[in-house]
Amino acid sequence: MALINENYLKLHGSYLFAEIAKRVAKFKGENPDANVIRLGIGDVTRPLPDAIIQAMHKAVDEMADEKTFRGYGPEQGYDFLIEKIIKNDYAARGIHLGMDEVFVSDGAKSDCGNIQEIFGIDNIVAVTDPVYPVYVDSNAMAGRAGEIGADGKWSRIAYMPCTSENNFIPQLPQTRPDLIYLCFPNNPTGMTLSKDDLKKWVDYARANKSIILFDSAYEAYIQEKDVPHSIYEIEGAREVAIEFRSFSKTAGFTGTRCAYTIVPKEVEAYTEKGEAIPLNKLWNRRQTTKFNGVPYIIQRGAEAVYTEEGQKQIKELVQYYMSNAKIIKEGLESVGLKVFGGVNAPYIWLKTPNDMDSWDFFDKLLNEANIVGTPGSGFGPSGKGYFRLTAFGNRESTEEAVERFRKKLKL
Amino acid sequence: MALINENYLKLHGSYLFAEIAKRVAKFKGENPDANVIRLGIGDVTRPLPDAIIQAMHKAVDEMADEKTFRGYGPEQGYDFLIEKIIKNDYAARGIHLGMDEVFVSDGAKSDCGNIQEIFGIDNIVAVTDPVYPVYVDSNAMAGRAGEIGADGKWSRIAYMPCTSENNFIPQLPQTRPDLIYLCFPNNPTGMTLSKDDLKKWVDYARANKSIILFDSAYEAYIQEKDVPHSIYEIEGAREVAIEFRSFSKTAGFTGTRCAYTIVPKEVEAYTEKGEAIPLNKLWNRRQTTKFNGVPYIIQRGAEAVYTEEGQKQIKELVQYYMSNAKIIKEGLESVGLKVFGGVNAPYIWLKTPNDMDSWDFFDKLLNEANIVGTPGSGFGPSGKGYFRLTAFGNRESTEEAVERFRKKLKL
Fold first, then answer.
1. How far apart are CA A396 and CA B8, in angstroms?
2. What percent of chain A has pLDDT over 70?
3. Residue B340, in any domain of the structure
4. Which of B1, B4, B299 is the mutation pick for testing A, counting most A CBs within 10 A?
5. Is residue A223 a part of any domain in this protein?
6. Which helix (H) or strand (E) holds A277?
7. Per-residue pLDDT reduced to its tens digit, B314-353
8. Are residues A105 and A38 in the same domain?
9. Binding-face residues of A in 331-390 toward B, CB within 8 A
10. Count of domains observed in chain A
11. Which UniProt keywords apply (chains A, B) (predicted)?
């Protein structure tokens, strides 16, 4: 008799976005003429920059000719792309990586979800609260999370609350964690860690033989100087950190799919008997066994991000969204709302007025201003009383949304 | 202290293709002028058909325009592609599938590797021997394979030998299996099951509450009538089978990456307490949590496979390779070699002369005829004394290879 993985039954449904869709559908049914503006989901809306488009056309043509056709590529990605990543995203910041420390993939979601496979089941996982759900769910599926409580917290996950009280900087949990997921600039709060803040985590991991799983999917949005783009800017991080990067938000690749993960040769974890094992070797084995690489055409598109034109165009793209972020942030502040993020990230995390429940604020915003956002409580218990807006809309609707906050929302 | 998944340490290295590369490099070093023909690896060489090229160019252009740009798509794949798959690959054979029973992915390797995640650790896995290594390795990584022996066999995997003695038809193993991997047309042997053969497995799975994981990546190569293209041609298979399909070999997508997996609503596995759980729900949860869909551009390319032009062009592609297969098969038979496969699959599985060791034959073929193939023993103990050639080369080198078998190989 075939048995299922019963850990799957412990998971709650993907309640958040389904519930949002349901409430929006109901509202639109009752208000068919309402012009609803969606600032809820974290998906880009601007077209791909021209340098990328041209590179992909060229690659498509190569696939049409026997002489330039490409079959299976290296599972880890083509050298032409890895070289550009190392040179532009790392060497330019004084970080030196080997060619076999970069693993190109189809998405940071895949890598963040799959990375836990190379670790033992008994590790204690720490996550920030609020949090990107993939870190938690992928560990729960593997049996590393224990049981889920009525408050939505798993018994074997260590949660690190990030709220306005601690300026959204996670503190060490009471249980000593083995695997620590950090995402900065943060989704959903849009807040960052300084180099000093991040150094404390690296030092902690080195002292305790923990591993930091560092998601820097939003690094391209960093505007301020002291905010680290890569965890490897911190001394010693090569011994304890794996870093996830993506072209999704950097270059508009959410529907084009390319990302990469850095696993330095020095990062080690341990057998039960205490033998140190390089994680690079394990991740390479995982990827070569269960993955067959990113399409050649897409890798050529990603490579074009690093041309002179490409760099100029993706910077314009990021600035477009960051101007939206500024418009939202300043607009909301002008009506007296308390707002976080939006400076080094495309996310605005607002405190609901009078500690209103996140879902009540969702309904109020939808009904009074016809704007869809995301209730903070959907990202974890410490998101209660918060609300996320994203800067990924177009300029016109972003400005219109702010206008409605000013004129229609009864605060 | 972070612990690793120690199951990874039990795996042997990807010895086979590394060892081939090493021996070829050594030979070429010593024989710099030799014109080596590679019929070893199972990778396509013909360019992508024009219908697919044109569809991808169009999709690239759509990504350049705000009005047609695509961000995140459904993790399960776009409806436009799923509809075509259902209509052309299944309904045309009398098989009816729901839209939510098809999961588009980046490759059959990913799906074959990931599918085991939704099953419990205590299931007994059965595989044919010889076998595509991903089925075994992915289960070993999850801790389902036990320990590996000196003969390369895992203690908790049930092996089903497929040799000329049983006409390459797997027999039920002595241990009752819960998860049964079947790949037909088979890689590496190129052999098939008839509908009656396959029905025995479906009946067995229904009687024993086992699950069949059916890899039909090579179905497009089937030429004979009685060979099933899909396991769902067999009555009752919807209750017990998951099917993997790929555009890799069908349409030349090995470097373009698109595949799909069918999980019918009726397929169920069980909790320890005996409760039946639909696997469709579990696989959907796995994919939505750890995967973010196939690039829009690539899905449009796959869709074009189903246009009138596309169908015509991929049939030509398959016929090109199958003509190669016929040339190899007949050529080898003409020099007295015993040859299997090559009729409904692009693989030729030959018995080495005088039961020569697979690796000895590899060296002989390389030295005498300058041809690279794959030693059968690399696919499992029952591959000993066999050797794989593939039909994926171009016509000229395939004909030249056969000529060398005739004239240079000392049999």
1. 52
2. 100
3. yes
4. B4
5. yes
6. strand A276-278
7. 999 999 999 999 999 999 999 999 999 999 999 999 999 9
8. no
9. none
10. 2
11. Aminotransferase, Pyridoxal phosphate, Transferase
